């Protein structure tokens, strides 16, 4: 497979960028109704300190304490996307491998840094779940998402930890883990897995995509390499304020409640999709989105857009064979009801259309 098979730079925001007012966004996996008012107030207050250069020490210490780690095992970044670039540029690796389907930015960053990237393609018939032996033994950097975007599959922590090897960097993208109630398969905070690098984002749960804030946890020597590759003051003062606030005890409890609500809303969406005969859902969804296969997906997406709903195309993800894939973000029950009503109509139209499949 060449690097030109998929548009690795296509992301969900492209589905709604420049869209007309009123388009319901089911393409971007940011929790609706965010950021909360208390966080907006903190961000607004931080504007009075913008004359000073950012000082990330307090936020870094807060994130480290949240995960029970020493400060030298944590690095704050301008979103998880910056972390992928730092990993690609700062770490000396010979054979990086990305486990797909998953978020495409890690592979894009590695390719931009001049690496030849291997792909491990998880199979639809296996439910896109990780199997022992799937990753080549000579891979010295492995990237995997958990829960995985776009499949919504939550891999067992033991299975991912089993990928660790002497001399191998194991990068686990946990950007959506805080949306999983109880975070049962999280590896963040673990110090017993050799070569482990975990990425976290505050974008999804707290609605901070425009602020760019995330962090990396890893061994101190890895953190030092990544930090040296960063520019000066890479994380803005408002983003640092957000990071510190979002790992406070009250915020963690709020995120836990939000994860439970998202889980209930996801089950409601799945129940509705189950009643639509042509739609096949990837089972075991645990993230704030679901992946479905639907006949005539390109036409379905366009007709849904005409009816006011944007969903994320799936054919840009390596490992999703064909054009029948669509990713749908989880929203509240009222929004889901409206969406399912329109989707049912669209499917009926596609069935009777001369170009329908």
Task: Please describe what this structure looks like.
The protein is globular, with a radius of gyration of 20 Å. The chain has two domains: 12-33 and 259-350, Alpha-Beta Complex (Aspartate Aminotransferase, domain 1); 37-251, Aspartate Aminotransferase, domain 2, CATH 3.40.640.10. It has eleven helices and twelve strands. Strand 9 and strand 10 (289-293) form a beta hairpin. The strands form two sheets. The chain has a seven-stranded mixed sheet, with helices on both faces. Strands 1-11-12-10-9 form a five-stranded mixed sheet, with helices on one face. It is α/β, with parallel strands linked by helices and 357 residues long. The chain has helices at residues 37-46, 57-66, 79-90, 105-112, 157-161, 203-206, 220-229, 237-246, 249-274, 297-306, 333-352, and strands at residues 24-26, 74-77, 96-100, 118-121, 141-145, 169-173, 196-201, 214-217, 280-281, 289-293, 309-313, 325-329. It is 35% helix and 15% strand.
- Which CATH architecture of the largest domain would you pick? 3-Layer(aba) Sandwich
* Tally of DSSP β-strands: 12
CATH topology of the largest domain: Aspartate Aminotransferase, domain 2
In oligomeric terms, what are we looking at?
A: single chain
Average pLDDT taken over every residue: 93
Termini separation: 27 Å
Rg over alpha carbons: 20 Å
| Percentage of residues in strands | 5-15%
Query: What proportion of the residues is helical, as a percent range?
Result: 25-40%
Structural domain count: 2
H/E series: EHHEHEHEEHEEHEHHHEEHEEH
**What would CATH call the class of the largest domain?**
Alpha Beta
The geometry reads as: globular
């Amino acid at each position: 497979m060449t690097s030109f098979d998929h548009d690795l730079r296509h992301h969900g925001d492209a589905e709604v960028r420049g869209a007309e007012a009123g388009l319901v966004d089911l393409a971007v996996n940011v929790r609706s109704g965010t950021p909360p008012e208390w966080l907006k107030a903190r961000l607004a207050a931080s504007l009075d300190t913008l004359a000073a250069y950012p000082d990330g020490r307090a936020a870094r210490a807060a994130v480290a304490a949240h995960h029970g780690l020493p400060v030298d095992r944590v690095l704050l970044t301008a979103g998880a996307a910056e972390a992928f670039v730092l990993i690609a540029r700062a770490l000396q690796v010979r054979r990086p491998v990305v486990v797909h389907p998953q978020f495409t930015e890690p592979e894009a960053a590695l390719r931009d840094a001049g690496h030849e990237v291997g792909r491990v393609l998880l199979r639809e018939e296996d439910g896109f779940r990780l199997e022992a032996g799937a990753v080549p033994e000579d891979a010295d950097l492995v990237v995997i998402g958990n829960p995985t975007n776009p499949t919504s599959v939550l891999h067992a922590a033991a299975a991912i930890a089993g990928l660790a090897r002497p001399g191998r960097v194991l990068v686990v993208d946990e950007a959506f883990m805080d949306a999983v109630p109880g975070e049962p398969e999280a590896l963040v905070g673990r110090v017993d897995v050799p070569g482990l690098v975990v990425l976290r984002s505050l974008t999804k749960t707290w609605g901070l995509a425009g602020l760019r804030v995330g962090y990396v946890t890893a061994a101190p020597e890895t953190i030092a390499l990544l930090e040296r590759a960063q520019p000066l003051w890479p994380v803005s003062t408002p983003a640092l304020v957000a990071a510190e606030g979002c790992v406070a005890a009250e915020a963690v409890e709020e995120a836990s409640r939000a994860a439970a609500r998202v889980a209930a809303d996801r089950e409601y969406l799945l129940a509705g999709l189950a009643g639509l005969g042509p739609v096949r859902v990837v089972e075991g969804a645990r993230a704030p989105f679901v992946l479905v296969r639907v006949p005539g997906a390109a036409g379905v997406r366009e007709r849904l857009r005409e009816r006011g709903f944007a969903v994320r195309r799936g054919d840009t993800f390596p490992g999703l064979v064909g054009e029948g894939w669509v990713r749908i973000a989880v929203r509240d029950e009222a929004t889901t009801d409206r969406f399912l009503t329109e989707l049912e109509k669209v499917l009926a139209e596609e069935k009777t259309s001369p170009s329908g499949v």
